[in-house]
# Entry
Amino acid sequence: MAKFDPRGRKVKILATVGPASRDPDMLRKLFRAGVDAFRVNMSHGEHEVHAETIAAIRAMEKEFGHPIAIFCDLQGPKLRVGKFKGGKAVIRHSGHFTLDRNPEPGDETRVELPHPELFGLLEKDQRLLINDGKIQLKVIRADENEILCSAVVGGVISDRKGVNVPDAEIPIPALTEKDRRDLAFAVQQGADWIGLSFVQRPEDLAEARKLMGGYGALCAKIEKPMAIRRLDEILEMCDGVMVARGDLGVELNPEEVPPLQKKIVNKARTLGKPVIVATQMLESMIESPAPTRAEVSDVANAVYDGADAVMLSAETAAGEWPEEAVTIMDRICVQVERDELYLGRVRLLDTPPDSTTADALSHACMTIADTVPIAAITVFTGSGSTARRVARERPSVPMLVLTPSVRTARRMALLWGAHAVTTKDIGSFEEMIAKGKRMALRHGFGKAGSKLIALAGVPFGTPGSTNLLHVVTLAGDELDKHKGS
# Structure
């Protein structure tokens, strides 16, 4: 078995797999460089190729003896225009342009919009953004057959370019037929996280949850302004959230995105749900071996905000420098966490414990670690809920999460501060203490004389029973005394 060393940082790295990185040797390099979880983008590629990628990641997981999360990201309902004569046209700046239901190829005055649900929905002065916002239209008049617009910003438009509608809630489900097929595939492949795109309302999550059948965790991707209005309800319905700044940045003014990012991160953290900051974090590294200073600051700010994970998209999927992008992102995260101001920054957010024993003990772990020299917090959990409670407090020391569930261990790969290990369940207090000590030494969390916090629930194996906190000291002969599992 290959050697795996704990990352030495608490924030996690999610990297997208694509043509530049799906080779097993490159996946191994990315994992060694710092990747904790891999994103499979269902918008591109065939199921056969994705299955090979997932199999390679699972083989690598076995090779290194460390759980790795697989995040299958669904495409979602992408609105697109139809086709043009010759493949493209030029919309005149300040001119008129019509979107209609006529399937004939378009020209500089009109094109088909093959989405009947939009006709009769849009109102005067609402915006339509085409090709990632490069073309901006404003509605003059809309009826059941035509949407007449004025071109606020014109330009070249070509076949099947994407359309964003930022000012209206679109009455289409978050899951298309393709998404349903992709979701069934992801569940069959044992994906640990499912990313649901273009969430507008909490109801969008219900169908995905039902189709998942209890397998995997559901991540709501926040990329529509409409989702912000019902953010609290959406967060209650999901297991985690992604700040998907790509489409969010298209539909909002650029200056609106940074404060919204902080708002989403804070709300997710308050609920103890993992939050991922994504899109264009090291965008220039698609072509350049080094990032811009602004990109470095962007990644650092997400870490200072207390995000659970930061994500690489095209940088690792299709870029020329995938390993270097991961290496630099890892270095940024480590450097920020070494800053003496870091802990104070991530704790600026008040996360008062709920009035439960589990929350009170999780909060106590943080205060003990701040008061007494503690090497790690050892969390015994079946579902992972105890680990999420502890992570919400952003303790000063890492968590060693011990669980009998491989599925839980993999999900922890996107949780701040968690180093998960799968191990046999425990049956007694003495066994808990012995196993906690042994695993801490085996995985490099402490040495002779180090103190650990052990957090668990009695009776053991009972979900939601966290009620025990114990501080132990590691002896020099613990590893020798307790060889075996």
